[in-house]
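thought: user wants a sequence for this fold. calling inverse folding tool.
action: design(structure=
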């Protein structure tokens, strides 16, 4: 049985790379729904349907024991329903984790009180981060900024034009004297150093490529019976719902492997 990682696009490859760096033994099946990326502007209903189809693929076709939803938009829009309805009906012995709770725990552990968050529209409007942060510490104040332009710019090689856009999005958060900034979309990991140069050294950056591998290792320690069944050949397989030359180049660059192959997952017209 394998470890699955799911994202709407290539952002989750950075999470997969970080997991492989910390725990290189596990076999990973990475699936990106590039056909419907970005999820941030999609409805909750649509995101759930896309995510459910991906779970069918990862659990049913590839026999994953555990799937990590690396996409923040999919986590806030679909995770609870997948856990409460989909898994009990279809795969009661499998597990799905998201990225919100590990990130919120990181905030709590560092005792930050004034937090900024850069995220997609779906993630901001859901209110999920605010809700989960206040459960752990009602004194936390969260300032959220939707950044709808960032994912398309990253996915379409627009990084060289991105700094003024970032400055526009970050300016109101910096004005609130935040102590830390949550990068509430896996794609934003690409921009971590650019964001750091704008924020300065006094504002901590909470990036999920640094958080998720450590939290996953703790999860395996708490649930050794789930970890024990995972295959350990150090392999990674990539499946995209739409394959372009840009995605091939990006995957090879991120994983630092020019031999990496992307295979077709499915098309929704066939589903």
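)
observation: tool returned 271 residues.
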């Amino acid at each position: 049985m394998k470890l699955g990682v799911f994202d709407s696009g290539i952002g989750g490859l950075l999470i997969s790379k970080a997991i492989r760096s910390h725990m290189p033994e596990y076999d990973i099946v990475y699936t990106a729904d590039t056909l419907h990326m970005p999820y941030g502007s999609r409805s909750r209903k649509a995101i759930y349907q896309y995510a459910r189809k991906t779970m069918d693929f990862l659990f049913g076709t590839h026999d994953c024991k555990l799937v990590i939803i690396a996409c923040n938009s999919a986590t806030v829009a679909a995770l609870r329903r997948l856990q409460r309805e989909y898994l009990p009906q279809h795969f009661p012995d499998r597990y799905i984790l998201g990225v919100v709770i590990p990130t919120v725990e990181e905030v709590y552990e560092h005792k930050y009180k004034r937090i900024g968050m850069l995220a997609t529209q779906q993630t901001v409007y859901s209110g999920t981060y605010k809700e989960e942060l206040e459960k752990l510490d009602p004194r936390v104040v969260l300032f959220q900024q939707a950044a709808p332009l960032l994912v398309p710019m990253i996915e379409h090689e627009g990084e060289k034009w991105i700094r003024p856009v970032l400055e526009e999005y970050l300016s109101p958060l910096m004005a609130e004297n935040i102590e830390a900034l949550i990068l509430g979309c896996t794609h934003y990991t690409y921009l971590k150093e650019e964001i750091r140069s704008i924020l300065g050294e006094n504002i901590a950056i909470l990036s999920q490529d640094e958080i998720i591998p450590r939290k996953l290792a703790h999860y395996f320690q708490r649930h050794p019976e789930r970890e024990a069944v995972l295959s350990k050949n150090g392999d990674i397989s990539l499946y995209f719902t739409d394959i372009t030359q840009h995605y091939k180049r990006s995957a090879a660059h991120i994983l630092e492997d020019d031999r990496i192959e992307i295979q077709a997952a499915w098309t929704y017209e066939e589903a």
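thought: summarizing for user.
answer: Here is the designed sequence. The beta strands are 2-7, 28-32, 64-69, 95-97, 114-119, 141-146, 180-184, 204-206, 236-240, 262-264.
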